[in-house]
Amino acid sequence: MGHELAVVAAVVLGVAVQLVALKWVRVGQREHYLPGRIGIFFALWYRASFVNQALLVIGFILLIGSFARNLGTVAHLVIAAAMVACVLAMPVGLGFRGRTSKLALTARLKRLLVVVGLIDAALTFVGWLLGFPLAFALLGGYLAPAVVELALVLTRPLEDRLMQRYVDDASERLRRVRPRVVGITGSFGKTTTKNYLATLLEGSVRAVASPASFNNRGGLARAINERLVPGTEVFIAEMGTFGPGEIAALCAWIPPQIAVITALGPVHLERFGSEASILRAKLEITEQASVVIINIDYPRLALAAKALAGSANPRRIIKVSAITLDADVTVKPNEEGELLVYLAGSKLGKIDAGEIAPTNLACAIAAALECGVTPQALQDRLGHVTSPANRLVTAVVPESGIEVLDDTYNSNPAGARRALAALERRGGEAATKFVVTPGMVELGKRQYPENYSLGKAVGLVADQLIIVGKTNRAALVGGAAEAQAETPQSRLDAIVTVRDRASAIAHVKRYSKAGDVVLYENDLPDHYP
Predict the structure, then answer these.
(1) Does residue 505 form part of some domain?
(2) Is the sign of the CA dihedral 497, 503, 508, 511 positive or negative?
(3) Which residues form a coiled coil (predicted)?
(4) Is the peptide bond before 91 cis (omega within 30 degrees of 0)?
């Protein structure tokens, strides 16, 4: 092989191996560009598959071979070509484009790609200085997850500065419009409560709510800049958090007069480490609020309500519940499939329960009253309250006659239990009941036991459990198998494992009939194995 051809081939191979970074850039985008997440997903993908572990070892051996000086040019290029093929395949299952979410070429992503390219170029330049340019280029491809992680760290300060311009615009708009701000947080139920509240305010108060799950700095700034208009009386801000201090930072420029805490659970426990840390992060929303609405059905939140009431900072505490009438607002299910609404123990009205979350509705009612909605107007609006999309929404597919329970968004242990209870109420005696789920994630040390419990609970309600992906497969199979083998009342006939949600849907279509019921519980994006 001529020298010029060898150089061209080496350059092509060196560039090609860098393409693997696109896989991990997409993971970074799906994880909100947060540094530290790439390593977690690297571990997930390589723990989940022996094939990926084997490719990792083979790639390492080839990489070592690329540094050998006593091999000829042809041998080096053969090793490099094999290395490129190996690295581009790693990890098997994680695609470049994605099925559930495509790589969105936003301005931020383009800046990230530029930095990734500069890191790879610098690494190759160092290799050139040391006499191993091709080997160092291959090293950059092999270490693509680490390269993308480094790029996320390096670009974070720039992205924060660029975002500050939009935050400043939003702060100025809030100052000019001067709406009353209702801040809503909680381990789950934030979006549902926000939508319930927006519905209850209609006709009484001019309100704007942050759309969908726009609950971080960028999303809330965009919601304010695009939607907050003069004359708006109430702005409903859903506030999420992935770590301590994030809600406090949001409240610094979107100070809520009314703070709502919907629930407390192990959601994002992986990030926080303990429920005590989660509670402290959620309580940041109360610091500037004059009114705090809190769900006391969770013991930690009940204790927090007492502590807030006795603190030096004067706040009015409004307690809500789905259990006790001692709360200020109670929304309590009865045996007739209704939700009874009580204000300070006195009955206000009732509505069909449907799939309405009682404590989320109680939070929304308390907030609506604080925003000036009268009890009579509340009664008139209660019948308009519905579940948000993908949160335990029920529909019958016309062409098949199959009833679908869609609970695909942000599954958590409490929500999963409620969804299974809804499934149990559905269908006749001849109905086959399916549960399609990849399980629950970001639960830290509780992830395996919570998914094991979910599998066991499914075994008492469903005829078929279809497990999507590998992330929680072992836990779900274990729990379901225990229910199947040891629980006399178990009706579970089949435990099916599939690669992705499309395969699960195909299975349901193949084995279901009119009158059957299928619960879709959670839907992980495809950057999970």
Answers:
(1) yes
(2) negative
(3) none
(4) yes
Helix (H/G/I), strand (E/B), else coil: 342? strand
The string of pLDDT tens digits covering residues 117-137 is 999 999 988 988 888 888 888
pLDDT tops 90 at residue 409:
no
Residue entry with tokens 């581009």: 88
Instruction: Say if residues 431 and 468 touch (Cβ distance below 8 Å).
Output: no
User: Measured between alpha carbons, how far is 526 from 331 in angstroms, rounded to an integer?
Assistant: 37
Question: Could you give the CA distance from residue 173 to residue 208 in angstroms, rounded to a whole number?
Answer: 13
DSSP state of 205: S
Lay out the sheet containing 180-185: strands in order across: 207-209, 234-238, 180-185, 258-261, 291-295, 316-321, 329-333, 338-343, 346-352
Residue 223 has what DSSP assignment? Answer: H
Residues 406 and 461 in one domain: yes
Contact in structure between 54 and 91 (CB atoms under 8 Å)? no
Residues 276 and 363 in one domain: yes
Whether pLDDT at 178 is above 80: yes
- What pLDDT shows up at residue 15? 79
Q: pTM for the complete prediction?
A: 0.88
Dist. CA 301–CA 73, nearest whole Å: 68
Residues 149 and 79 in one domain: yes
Both 144 and 33 in a single domain?
yes
Provide the CATH number for the domain around residue 458. 3.90.190.20
DSSP three-state, residue 99 = coil
What's residue 391's pLDDT?
66
Distance between CA atoms of residues 23 and 147, nearest Å: 12
H-helix or E-strand spanning residue 496? strand 494-498
Mapped onto helix, strand or coil, the DSSP state of residue 214 is: coil
Residue 168 covered by a domain: no
Is 172 contained in some domain? no
Q: Are residues 412 and 503 in the same domain?
A: yes
AA letter at 300: R
* 223 and 363 both lie in a single domain: yes
- Give the domain extent around 489: 393-521
